[in-house]
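Section 3.1: Structural characterization of target chains.
Under the original work plan, the team committed to producing a structural model for every single-chain target entering the pipeline before any wet-lab resources were allocated. The record below documents one such target. The sequence was received from the expression subgroup and is listed exactly as submitted; it comprises 563 residues.
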Amino acid sequence: MTGAERYIEQVMDGSITVCRYVRLAVERHVRDLERQNTPDFPYWFDRNAAERKIQFTELLRHIEGPLANEKAKFKLEDWQKFIDWNIFGWKRVGTNTRRFRKAYIEVARKNGKSLMASAATWYCAVMDGEEGPQIYSVATKREQAMAVWKAVRAQIDFQPSFKNMTKTYQQNFSIVIPGNHGVIRPLGRDHKTEDGLNPHFVCVDEYHAHPTSEMLNVMENGMGARAQPLMYIITTAGFDLNCPCYQEERHMVTGILEGTMQPRPENVFGIIYTLDDGDDWQNPNCWVKANPNLGVSVSYDFLESQVTQALALPQKQNDVKTKNFNIWTQSVSRWILPEVWNKCISPYAPLEGRTCYGGFDLSSTTDITAWVLAFPPKDLDSKYTLLPHFFIPADGLLDRERRDKVPYTLWRDMGLLTTTQGNVIDYEYIEAHILADAEKYNLVQIAHDPYNAKQVVIHLTEKGLDLVAFRQGFLSMSGPTKDFEKKVLGCEINHMGNPVMRWMMSCVETQTDPAGNIKPVKPAQNKYGKRIDGIVAAIMAMERAVTAANGESIYEHQGVRSL
């Protein structure tokens, strides 16, 4: 039994402690083994290829610390072997090229990420049989991208056989491999020669630090001519829930593992080592979930000292949670926390023909407009379902994406957001979308903020739709906001994991008046990267749906609960 197979067995029988996402990654592998040789699964597992990568890695040397002084070779732990077992063992039927074209590995710091990244980089440069492989390590700045490049260069310097097959050019930071005409280079967003590249392998270290997906997109677009390219993303959690690492890559991987992303991208491997919802980060029994190398490269004493400092200095807690326990955090306080919001995700159910209530929050002419439908439960066991859609001007979209640090273009391509022609919102697009929804669903009533909405209301009313004004002051917003909060806490709402709504919920704070009334607000008026329009529209739509379900308003004498 190999180390990878031992790890699989131990995860499946529960003899080692892992988080939910790790177990789901192992179950996916086991399930895929059973799917081999079936018509709808064009992949097969090559044990020899998997073992070859692991054996290659264990020929490499430690390059820093006491083990480097002893000239010790790498010894992969079983969890690391499981990752290589998947990425390099699965092949495509017919071509025998790699199945996985992207790998996303998320784990706390000091768990051997640099070792894994440098080994994968060097392996793909010399062992893939690719002619002229272009190998890149990328980061926000080239100085940061040098970390993996230097680790590969150190391997070359330490081993004569590697040194004889390469030439290193320090002046332009290139390692050239004459035997296959390959090159290994570091690149950063501050380096202006990314376009026109033809990458075979790209290592993206600490992707959480990237403010946009621009660098990764350039690299992926350049991989089209390669037979078996690999985008290798290895990172720790970060402090910005709006960054592309969290919004795009992590969202995709969790969707793959949970089975909520359909169709499932079969060419993406992902694994996340973190604490589970409800775990106490102060509990040493949980630490191994985010630190699979606990007792090897990470010590209990070190983590204990970090936790002790964080308890003494509350301002350090987010830092410790993020870096040492791989928990995504946000530096500002918000209304409903991500772990609470994320519990309100259920599988998609057909909504065509169902009764629903709408809410729209028209933006200024250059901002986002939100349109949300709320579908009441069909029976006592079902939930309120939210179906949002968003609109934004097409002109300047990339500039707005860089400014706000959210993936508007991705959301547009996913069909979650419509871009209207020009540099201002074209309300005709919104009216057409609402009318189309009215044909598709049984749209009973629409709540709207009367500000900026006069012409839209006139046009929709002329088409036979029922619209009611819903002002944004404390008195009108407080009851619906408190009930929305209550239903989120009780998991009575299904938002289906919409990433735009997730981002907007991360921006919401609540403001309270002297009478105890509350309403949702942005953390700072006109602050870039902070939008709450979808949540406001959802609250309005929910108020109409709940009121209709109860036959009267339920928003009198409601209390608010703390999250």
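The radius of gyration is 26 Å.
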